[in-house]
Design goal:
With 161 residues, the chain is mostly helical. The protein has helices spanning 3-11, 21-26, 31-60, 71-107, 115-123, 125-138. The longest helix is centred in the middle third of the chain and has 37 residues, at 71-107. The chain starts with a helix and ends in a 23-residue tail after the last helix.
Length: 161
């Protein structure tokens, strides 16, 4: 094979261009990109949960503080804080972020199994965060940290027969 034929064959080899922003971050099947999305989301969820934590701390700083004036609002803040910190900060960071980053590297796999399912599992989190925040601002999610409805009502009286 002559050197001109070899050079010509080398020039015909096309390299794939890197994906654009939308293709890389919204439709990615790369475990490192999805892990990065999880970590960024965990930081955002942690910041929102941290704001709620600061509201709770400022309310409890002094006796008879009136930052949060209603009990239902207090329950909503506590419930949303707990849900945000566990399900939108800790679990996405540890399981989603570090799991996507390190597990394929540790086992020597080129990527995660079912990468599109891995991607959709991340993209279900932002709408869930939006629903939690809507419930927070509508003052409707505060049923306590157990998410059980109250067993009694202060306006109803239990009268014996």
């Amino acid at each position: 094979m002559s050197s001109t034929t070899h050079d010509h064959a080398h020039d015909d080899h096309h390299h794939a261009s890197p994906p654009g922003f939308v293709a890389r971050w919204f439709f990615s099947t790369n475990h490192k990109d999805i892990g990065t999305l999880y970590l960024i989301f965990a930081v955002i969820g942690g910041l929102v949960g941290g704001v709620l934590s600061e509201i709770m701390r400022s309310q409890l700083l002094h006796p008879h503080n009136t930052i949060v004036t209603e009990g239902q609002t207090w329950n909503t803040i506590i419930t949303s804080h707990g849900l945000l910190m566990i399900f939108f900060s800790v679990m996405p960071a540890l399981i989603g972020g570090f799991g996507n980053w390190f597990i394929p590297l540790m086992i020597g796999a080129p990527d995660m199994a079912f990468p599109r399912l891995n991607n959709i599992s991340f993209w279900l989190l932002p709408p869930a965060l939006l629903l939690i925040l809507i419930g927070l601002f509508m003052d409707e999610s505060g049923s306590g940290w157990t998410l059980y409805p109250p067993l009694s009502n202060s306006t109803s009286a239990c009268s014996p027969r």
